[in-house]
Amino acid sequence: MEAPRRVRVLYADDEADVREVFAAVLGEDLDVVTVESGAEALAELARADYDVLVSDMRMDPMRGSDLLAAAFRSHPDTQRILLTGYSDHDDLAVAVNEGHLFAYLQKPWDQALLRLTIQRASEARHLELENRRLLAELRNRNKKLEQDIEAVTRVGEQRRPVLLADSRAMLKVLEEIDAVAETDVSVLISGETGSGKELVAATIHERSARKRGRFIAQNLAALPPDLMTSELFGHVKGAFTGAQQARRGLFELADGGTLFLDEIGEAPHALQALLLRALETREFWPVGASEPRRVDVRIVAATNRDLLALSQAGQFRSDLYYRLAVCPIRVPPLRERPEDLHALAERALSVAAQRMNRQSPRLGQEAFRALEGHDWPGNVRELINLMERLCIYFPGKDVSAEDLNLPPRLGTSASLAPPPPESAADVAPLPRGNIQLEMPEGGTTFDALEREILARVLERAEGNQSRAARSLGLSESTFRSRLKRLGLKG
Questions:
Q1: Are residues 471 and 395 located together in one domain of the fold?
Q2: Which terminus of the chain is less hemmed in, N or C, by CB atoms within 10 Å?
Q3: Is the pTM for the entire model greater than 0.90?
Q4: What is the pLDDT of residues 27-54, one digit of tens each?
Q5: Residue 129, Cα to own-chain centre: how many angstroms?
Q6: What is the CATH classification number for the domain harbouring 433?
């Protein structure tokens, strides 16, 4: 165990015999250094660290009061004690006011009292230093906490639902959102996969009186049919094999908030009946429960199917459809709102770069023109995935149209540049007729079949690759690459 640190004391007195007595009496349990003048004392303080400075009042040429005042200015952490044998009130006032004394004692000093005073002065110094250290640590932690809060806030702002709308179609959606958000009716959102239906639902929640409640989203297509009821309504302990404890369902978890049911068209008929009852009565029965439970939850459903047609065909309950579709909202696919592409791409880049801690790539005019010319079968989700890929491969760089690596439109050139004028032979259709292939008795490979088809089509096109590619719905560059891969000559 490490021995306790001895208190370091610097004593200034111009009388040698007094210094000797001081060192002899207090040096047994204190580290004492003595000097004969104020100038030496200040020099010693600059050389080494001391806990306590003790000074006599009457010294020449620097008085004790002046020494302690100078020591406070240069070494405020060192505690100061004044010893005086005179009733010099003016000097004492200077020492107290300018030297910020810990204490002053009358001479001749009492040995026990002086030792106790020095010990307490040292303790006060270390307490002050510890407080200062803790305050600095607290400030650093507060600064770090502020930075963390700022970072979380930035991420939170990015994760909050933000519908960007420059197109007339999406401005109409925003108007519909604002209208239904003020009410508590059920909403049915329709749209293609990846078009942003969940974002619309989250925006409705954020703009409603339920925004302080939970927004819970569940894709019904992702649930096994035999678990849907338990997942939505919960179950009691022992309700079925494996139900070792009670479990709350999503309806109960979303109480006071909004429950978003995506792919509602995938709900089995039995579940549709339970959903209808929950919507009409705001009550549900957990699996195995002996009594119902009441909830205050808003239902927002979504589908990429034509629920009205399904209900008319008997594949979806018509009463549930009309209960859900009190306020229907259609989210247009991305190809119908090219005006939104620029803002959507820029935000997706910003969010991805922030999450990956990378610099955001820069999209040029060519790249944006390429984006606008793409069909976006995957809609906004496809765009977000593309922007994330750009952040990975092109952080902080300029992105060209070629860097996007977008698949060509069916039946068009992969090049983004305008195609050269085509000759009559290039655009002339191939002779109509079926291509008949003979399957060998021992079977064949897909490459062999593809090679045979390409060869027959090229033969019909009389070797014109443009006509052959067009007839197959391929770009000319794709057609040529397949010829090369399969070892065919055009």
A1: no
A2: N
A3: no
A4: 888 999 999 999 999 999 999 999 999 9
A5: 39
A6: 1.10.10.60
